[in-house]
Amino acid sequence: MKDFSDDLASLRKRLDEARTYLKIDELRSQQPQLETEASRPDLWDDPDRARHVTGELAAMTDDLESYDSLDGKIEEAETLFELGREEGDDSVEPEIAALAAEVDRRFDALELRSLFTGEYDDHSAVCEIHSGAGGTDAADWANMLLRMFLRWSERKGFQVELDSVNPGTEAGISSATFIVKGRNAYGMLKGEQGTHRLVRISPFNAQGKRQTAFAGFSAVPFIEDSDDIDFEIDEKDIRVDTYHSSGAGGQHVNVTDSAIRITHFPTGIVVSCQNERSQRQNRERAMQILKAKLVDVERRRRAEEMAKVTGEKTMADFGTQIRSYVLHPYQMVKDLRSEHETSNVDAVLDGDLDQFIESYLRYERAQAS
Fold first, then answer.
1. Alpha-carbon torsion (233, 238, 244, 249), positive or negative
2. Which of 245, 294, 243, 238 is nearest to 262 (CA)?
3. Rounded to an integer, what distance in angstroms lies between the CA atom of residue 235 and that of residue 226?
4. 31 pLDDT exceeds 80?
5. In sequence order, what are the beta bridge partners of 324?
6. 31, 106, 200, 229: most buried, per Cβ within 10 A?
7. Pair 84, 159 in one domain
8. Nearest 5°: CA angle at 41, between 37 and 44?
9. pLDDT tens digit string along 145-160?
């Protein structure tokens, strides 16, 4: 009979660690109160609050069920091992090995959650893409990035709301704003912030020369529940412009006459929305995006002040080149921070970003330690 003692002890240790980073004891104490609130007959009188409560309860239930399921699988494997050892029954070895392998795989996925330590990591994300240097190739590259992030979101089961897309002069897009809705969306996408570089044979160059193009990606946490935002925007600090949307329509955005652009004078932040059916809806969504950006500005300001006091280094995670996508003369995608790389460029551009997201999160934690 093979000795599984060390393997099972390791799994039990990982379960104890999961109990800590999932905050299982805290969730169990909060669950009855949240279930009571979710069952109130008048809950949906306030749809925003109802969505907040039901979403929080669903996430809590998912964590508790995941933890309890892993506990049960480990206990099953431990019981089989003890019985097999007592009775000298080698026939249970394959079943124990299969259980241990299954639990190990599930822990690998679950432990990614331990890397989400930021205040807003569990939130949805407001994302923006802007074409950079490289002319038409840059606009085309920005459009390729948009497709990459939309495909990634689809793979993760996230809901995406595409709020504005501005076409490029000849091809592609000059910019796009979209919201990725789902648990931990911001925690995963925050590491994608920065400049993405593409090297390829340009389809827009008659001589077939190699071209380098740049596009920027940014993400801020989307705080949908207004109760979570502790400040109001002074109407004197903003200018609201209406315009006819110039989006691509169909694939990207509904073209309407009610597009909204809001400029926030104190910070210079400009947001726009053109995907909703009415001017009022576009304004409301643009204000939500503006508030999310202002919350992020304040969060960054506090982090910088704290770093000055403590002497800690803060990572410059925006406005810098973070990743290269080389299509010619060889095939390679390489993250310049974590140094993770792959030659399967097509898969990455089709949304296979998890490998880069996880490697960056682990790199970030190592840098902070």
1. negative
2. 238
3. 17
4. yes
5. 197, 334
6. 200
7. no
8. 80
9. 999 999 999 999 999 9
Alpha carbon separation from 216 to 197, 313, 325 (Å, rounded): 9, 23, 13
Q: Are residues 71 and 110 in the same domain?
A: yes
- pTM score, whole prediction: 0.78
User: Where residue 47 sits, what CATH number does that domain have?
Assistant: 1.20.58.410
Residues in the chain: 369
Calpha distance 198→38 (Å, rounded): 48
What are 285-320's pLDDT values in tens digits?
899 899 889 988 887 787 677 566 545 444 333 346
Range of the domain at 143: 124-368
Distance CA 154, CA 50 (A): 25
- Note the pLDDT tens digit of each residue in 239-291: 999 887 655 444 444 444 578 999 999 999 999 998 877 888 899 889 989 98
Number of domain units in the chain: 2
- Check whether residue 153 and residue 222 sit in a common domain: yes
Cα–Cα nearest to 322, from 190, 209, 220, 233: 190
Per-residue pLDDT, averaged over 73-88, amounts to 94
The 3-state DSSP class for residue 21 equals helix
Q: CA of 174: how far to CAs of 128, 130, 249, in Å? A: 11, 6, 15
Question: Quick one: tokens of 177?
Answer: 């704003």
Alpha helices by DSSP H, listed for the chain, are 5-21, 24-38, 47-87, 93-110, 135-156, 185-189, 279-310, 345-349, 354-368
